[in-house]
Amino acid sequence: MKTKIIAHRGASRLAPENTMPAFELAYKLGADAIETDVQLTKDNVPVIIHDEHVRRTTNGKGYIKNFTFQALQQLDAGSWFSQKYAGATIVSLDEFLQWIKPKSLYLNIELKNNKIDYTNIETIVYEKLRQYQLINRTILSTFNPASVKRTHELHPDINVALLTSRRNRYLVRDAKQLGATALHVKYRLLNQSLIDACHEENMPVRVYTINRSIRMQRCFTLESDGIFTDVPDLAIEQRKLFHTEQKH
Ligand code: G3P
Ligand code: MG
To answer: Which residues pair with 139 in a beta bridge?
Structure first.
């Protein structure tokens, strides 16, 4: 089996995370999928940004939930990374979906509702995916177990993954009980028995965030279903190497 290469926040080592240049690069480099993070503005517009606050990745300050979408658009989301990307803006989910629609890329949309429990974010995002007919190409995910459950109950036709970095011997059982159809785990949780337990339940396991060749090779050997990486170019090269070596 071929482990999928998922560009984490786009090709985020080469371009500012979660911006159009990072997504474009991930696509050009040949990633199988893009992972991105969604939060809600004051006027309930889903936008793509990792942190709840704009401080780290823009020239502004304040919480996303206190900005209108229009006000957010005035911020520069590229200069913090490099002057080359000055003028990049925070992308709306709409813009991202429009861009990805004609491309053969899978999507993982992470709902960033583990710190701020944005009301209705599950349905707001789901409805956008439906509008673009992207339900079948998307996996939603969240660190918030209650939100996994809500998503599954409200929208049982979309795949939803439980994200976790915590050790728990009942992880697979607990995830299944919530209605998760996949597990997205931090690398330190990865081992053969977790993979086996998931695969027995037909649950894909994807691992974050894998930026080193040696870890990539371990994920390929253990047959994890996907890896999230900031360096999709390296991951693709390493995957080729892995499959060539397997043939000999
Ligand atoms: O979805 C995998 C990974 O993105 C989870 O952590 O903090 O990078 O969003 P984070
Ligand atoms: Mg994420």
So the answer is: 108, 159
Burial 176-202 (b: 16+ CB within 10 A, else e): bebebbbbbbebebbeeebbebbeeee
Whether ligand 1 lies within 6 angstroms of the CB of 112 is answered as: no
Cβ of 50 closer than 6 Å to ligand 1, yes or no, is yes
Asked if 53 is an active-site residue, the reply is: no
DSSP 143-205: S-HHHHHHHHHH-TTSEEEEEE-S--TTHHHHHHHHT-SEEEEEGGG--HHHHHHHHHTT--E
- Atom 4 in ligand 1: residue holding the nearest Cα: 8
Our measurement of the distance from residue 86's CA atom to the centroid of its chain's CA atoms, rounded to an integer in Å, reads 24
**Tens digits of residue pLDDT in 72-96:** 999 999 999 999 999 999 999 999 9
Given the residues 50, 53, 152, 155, select the one marked as catalytic: 50
Ligand 1 pocket, 225 CB below 6 A?
no
DSSP code, position 77: S
- Please tell me the CATH superfamily of domain 4-52+91-247, with its number: Phosphatidylinositol (PI) phosphodiesterase (3.20.20.190)
155-176 pLDDT per residue, tens: 999 999 999 999 999 999 999 9
Nearest in space to 40 (alpha carbons), one of 102, 127, 104: 127
Using DSSP's 3-state secondary structure scheme, residue 206 falls into: strand
Please name the residue whose Cα sits nearest to atom 10 of ligand 1.
Answer: 50
